[in-house]
């Protein structure tokens, strides 16, 4: 159905990274989710009234909360597509993440309420009248939720939407919780234990767990996540196509919502080339990469001494010794200042966030290691933290 709807209502439906296409996919999937969840709520409510089951009733209101969540998602996708304005020059893209966070809170609230009602049902159990009709409703509900999980997860991957992935996670949790409800209804026929309340309790736990996971999925991009390694490699590959650029470092990617990225990086260029020619190359690279990645990009030109053999040797030694300390270390902005009695080797080193060594320990270890091999060389090191993986 989503496949059909997307081809009817979305132009260029395969251009998943186009902001308008993303928005339309989000609205269509969320609106269809409202329709399906309202149907499931009505069907399960009828089943709960027939069986007098608190577990089925809990599952029914879970679907009602899902419908409300989908409505919030529609608003989120709609508002996130607003153009930048004077008060929000980076656009409104993060509203999609905020809508996903609201959905997560609704899921958590529903989980808490169902937990309370299930505990009450365990303390004061009532007879459950299980029936084939109610069980059939639950089985159909599982199939519907499986379909919702598949289409939400598939579209979320294509348009890279944490908010839609949160909805997919919730649908998967609903499948499990509805399965628990079926078991509790069947088990209620063979035991006097309050299995209905216990089933509702299990459903509440699953709902709460899904809410926590959905919260994380939407909070992470709001706080700021490192870009995927494949994306970093793609950026580097594209930049190096523009000769005579020979390397990049200090890559920073700011995410202001899907389709609203700002990228900054340092492009290494030979220091003996004409500065006007190099500047023209940098400008051209910025324009082409902005088009390719649908982003704003700023490139800083970093001249590198490519002809000094002594500098090349010292750079190789510094990198070799850095890798002995931690194989993940990288160095950049390497330059040399010769003096009468010693030479200063100046460079930046990038330390992974989970490295246990302090900045001073890194400086001391590298100073000793390089100086032991080149007696006249003193290292002057700036320790950086990475913004990409």
Topology:
Blueprint: H1 2-9, H2 19-51, H3 54-80, H4 95-123, H5 132-159, H6 162-187, H7 195-223, H8 229-239, E1 247-255, E2 261-270, H9 275-293, E3 295-304, H10 309-325, E4 330-338, E5 343-350, H11 359-373, E6 377-384
Parallel strand pairs: 2-3, 5-6
Antiparallel strand pairs: 1-2, 4-5
Describe the protein in words:
Helix 6 runs antiparallel to helix 7 (195-223). The protein has 11 helices and 6 strands. Helix content is 62%, strand content 14%. The model has no long low-confidence stretch (mean pLDDT 86). The protein is of the alpha/beta class. It is elongated, with a radius of gyration of 29 Å. It has helices at 2-9, 19-51, 54-80, 95-123, 132-159, 162-187, 195-223, 229-239, 275-293, 309-325, 359-373; strands at 247-255, 261-270, 295-304, 330-338, 343-350, 377-384.
Number of helices: 11
Please trace the helix and strand order, writing H or E for each element.
HHHHHHHHEEHEHEEHE
The residue ranges in which pLDDT falls below 50 over 5 or more consecutive positions are: none
Estimated helix fraction: 55-70%
Rg, rounded, reads: 29 Å
Q: Which assembly state applies to the chains in this document?
A: single chain
The SS-based structural class is: alpha/beta
Number of strands: 6
Calculate the terminal CA-CA distance, rounded to whole Å.
Answer: 38 Å
| Major sheet description | 3 strands, mixed
Q: Please indicate the percent range of residues in DSSP E strands (runs of 2 or more).
A: 5-15%
Approximate shape: elongated
Strand order in space, largest sheet:
1-2-3
The average pLDDT value, as a whole number, equals 86
């Amino acid at each position: 159905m989503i496949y059909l709807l997307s081809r009817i209502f979305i132009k260029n439906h395969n251009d998943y990274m186009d902001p308008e296409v993303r928005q339309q996919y989000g609205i269509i999937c969320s609106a269809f989710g409202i329709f399906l969840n309202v149907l499931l709520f009505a069907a399960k409510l009828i089943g709960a009234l027939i069986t007098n089951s608190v577990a089925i009733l809990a599952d029914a209101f879970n679907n009602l909360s899902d419908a409300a969540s989908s409505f919030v998602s529609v608003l989120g996708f709609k508002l996130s597509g607003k153009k930048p304005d004077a008060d929000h020059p980076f656009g409104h893209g993060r509203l999609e993440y905020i809508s996903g966070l609201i959905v997560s809170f609704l899921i958590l609230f529903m989980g808490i309420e169902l937990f309370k009602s299930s505990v009450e049902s365990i303390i004061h159990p009532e007879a459950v009248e299980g029936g084939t009709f109610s069980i059939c409703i639950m089985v159909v509900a599982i199939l519907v939720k499986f379909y919702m999980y598949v289409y939400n997860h598939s579209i979320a991957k294509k348009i890279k939407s944490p908010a839609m992935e949160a909805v997919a996670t919730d649908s998967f949790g609903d499948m499990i919780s509805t399965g628990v409800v079926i078991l509790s209804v069947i088990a209620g026929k063979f035991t006097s234990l309050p299995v209905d309340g216990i089933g509702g309790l299990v459903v509440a736990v699953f709902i709460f767990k899904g809410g926590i996971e959905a919260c994380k999925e939407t909070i992470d991009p709001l706080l700021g996540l490192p870009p995927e390694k494949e994306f970093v490699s793609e950026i580097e590959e594209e930049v190096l196509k523009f000769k005579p650029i020979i390397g990049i470092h200090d890559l920073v990617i700011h995410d202001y919502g899907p389709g609203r990225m700002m990228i900054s990086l340092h492009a290494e260029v030979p220091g003996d080339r004409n500065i006007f020619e190099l500047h023209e190359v940098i400008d051209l690279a910025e324009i082409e990469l902005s088009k390719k990645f649908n982003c704003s990009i700023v490139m800083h030109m970093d001249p590198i001494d490519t002809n000094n053999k002594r500098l090349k040797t010292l750079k190789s030694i510094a990198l070799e010794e850095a890798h002995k300390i931690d194989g993940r270390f990288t160095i950049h902005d390497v330059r040399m200042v010769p003096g009468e009695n010693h030479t200063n080797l100046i460079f930046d080193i990038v330390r992974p966030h989970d490295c246990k060594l302090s900045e001073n320990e890194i400086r001391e270890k590298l100073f000793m290691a390089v100086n032991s091999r080149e007696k006249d060389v003193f290292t002057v090191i700036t320790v950086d933290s990475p913004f990409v993986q």
